[in-house]
Design goal:
Elements (H helix, E strand, L loop, with lengths): L3 H6 L1 H10 L3 H36 L6 H31 L18 E5 L13 H7 L3 E2 H8 L5 E2 L1 H20 L3 E3 L4 E2 L1 H7 L2 H7 L1 E2 L6 E2 L4 H6 L5 E3 L5 E10 L18 E11 L4 H19 L3 E5 L11 E9 L4 E10 L3 H6 L2 E3 L5 E3 L1 E9 H11 L7 E2 L2 H4 L7 E2 L4
Parallel strand pairs: 4-9, 8-14
Antiparallel strand pairs: 1-11, 2-3, 5-7, 6-7, 9-10, 10-16, 11-12, 12-13, 13-16, 14-15, 17-18
The chain binds one RNA strand through helix 3 and helix 4.
Length: 418
RNA sequence: GCGCGGGUGGCUGAGUGGUUUAAAGCGCACGCCUGGAAAGCGUGUUCCUUCACGGGAGCGAGGGUUCGAAUCCCUUCCCGCGCGCCA
């Protein structure tokens, strides 16, 4: 949510950002919001004056004035309905206007316009045809899609044996890397109530993506970012505490997983996966640097796994509502000969904090919204796909990346299990 | 699921219809004091609105009674404890 005070103080900044997003409708919303806010302020002053008169009457309580007091009460009630409407409408807009963009965000229509800002090691041409990760995993008896479909439907899978272990190895590897950098490990609740959930996510996404429970106000989380962001809801943090750096570990659940053609079968687009997530609460002036630091952490995973990758600066058409700036980290798929999105790294500035009411107390005693940042450290299934493709051998086995071997009891190569 | 007890500022916690303009304590910030610090003393520390003086709202949320509600009534959400059920 945008801060109404920012809009009042700097309408141009907000409007320029919407123009950059090429969102004409939201510009209209902004104008209407400002109008409603002005009306609200005027009406509020009138009502406050009525209240003042009423309070005076009640202080010098006198029976002869009861009629006037009642009259004023009626007027207040009448005007309050309108006041409430104005506030509702203003809030409606506020909740739906997107974050203001950082100046470095490129303009573009969609994913294809994201700008590559960095490349890892150069991909090598494979000397044999790369098998599809899902098919190979099934052949090696490391995954079972058919039985998962039988009990849970499409988009689910069993991971088996060494591949299941590899999933956990990835998580341990990511966790250990973050712990060395001073992150606190968090296992959050994986069910959340609706109200805090609305504080952390885009409202349209919510309906599309979330799994709901029946008869209870609980939703399966789409990422541990959400419970971690909401955990300090309506709290005031001390300046000394910041930055708070959290490493979330959880299963993630998503109802909508995009269209999947034949080639998408496997575990790239799935309803459930495991993820280690970086999350930071910080002071506004710390945001930029920490955002870069989170990106470096994500890149470190790719480097140590020795998977070719790119970092893209995500453009206006692909950046989403809550982000002021976003990087994607994309891993190389030798089978498709292109980079596929594995991680994203987002600076939400004060957008989430304003919705959630998370502030910190400054030295002079004033309060300000914190900034929040989030970034993938590793999303296991997507990364497993990359590993299976990049570490595939001609003989149809999968080598274990060096960085993961110690978490695999020293195993160097995964072969067919019986 | 049933029964009982609760939700008050950054925190603890008074307050059961009108000097509550939310006591008191703690914490935090600033100032005084000091050789420096601690202690002590003083000031500030919910939100909205106004250029300002000021004004208004606020005691989980939403309604109601009343000239007047943190306080009384209704609805609802949440928390704690006990019992039940269960991995």
């Amino acid at each position: 949510m945008l801060d109404i005070n920012l809009i009042r103080a700097n309408q141009k900044l907000v409007e320029d950002s919407l123009r950059k997003r090429q969102d004409k409708e939201k510009i209209k919303w902004l104008h209407d919001l400002i109008e409603k806010d002005n009306q609200w302020r005027g009406l509020k002053q009138n009502i406050d004056k009525l209240r003042q008169r009423k309070n005076d009457l009640s202080k010098s309580f006198n029976k002869s004035q009861i009629a006037e007091a009642k009259n004023i009460s009626a007027q207040i009630k009448e005007n309050e309905a309108r006041l409430f409407q104005l506030k509702e409408k203003a809030n409606y807009y506020l909740m739906r206007l997107p974050n203001t963009l950082h100046e470095s965000v490129p303009v573009g229509k969609g994913e294809e316009d994201n700008v590559v800002i960095r490349k890892g090691s150069r991909p090598k041409k494979p000397t044999f045809p790369i098998k599809h990760h899902g098919q190979l995993a099934a052949q090696l008896n490391l995954a079972d899609f058919e039985r998962a479909v039988k009990i849970s439907g499409t988009g689910f899978f069993f991971l088996k044996g060494e591949l299941a272990l590899l999933d956990i190895a990835l998580q341990r590897f990511a966790i250990d890397t973050l712990l060395k950098k001073g992150f606190t490990l968090i296992q959050p609740p994986i069910l959340m109530r609706r109200k805090p959930y609305e504080g952390v996510t885009d409202l349209e996404d919510f309906e599309k993506v979330m799994y709901k429970t029946e008869g209870e106000d609980l939703y399966l989380i789409a990422t541990s970012e959400h419970p971690m962001a909401a955990m300090y809801q309506n709290e005031i943090l001390e300046e000394k505490q910041l930055p708070i750096k959290l490493a979330g570990v959880s299963a993630c659940f998503r109802r909508e997983i995009g269209k999947h053609g034949l080639d998408e079968r496997g575990f790239f687009r799935v309803h459930q996966f495991n993820k280690i997530e970086q999350f930071v609460f910080c002071k506004p002036e710390q945001g930029r640097k920490l955002h870069e630091a989170l990106l470096k952490n994500a890149e470190e995973v790719m480097r140590k796994l020795q998977i070719p990758y790119t970092v893209t600066n995500v453009c206006t058409g692909d950046i989403g509502t809550v982000a002021a700036k976003k990087y994607d980290v994309n891993g190389w798929s030798p089978r498709e000969e292109k980079y596929i999105e594995l991680m994203s790294c987002t600076n939400c500035t004060s957008y989430q904090a304003a919705r959630l009411g998370i502030r910190y107390r400054k030295k002079d005693g004033s309060k300000e919204f914190v900034h929040t940042l989030n970034a993938t450290m590793v999303a296991t299934t997507r990364t497993l796909r990359c590993i299976i493709e990049n570490y595939q051998t001609k003989q149809g086995t999968v080598k274990v990346p060096k960085a993961l071997q110690k978490y695999m009891n020293g195993l160097k190569e995964i072969k067919k299990t019986v």
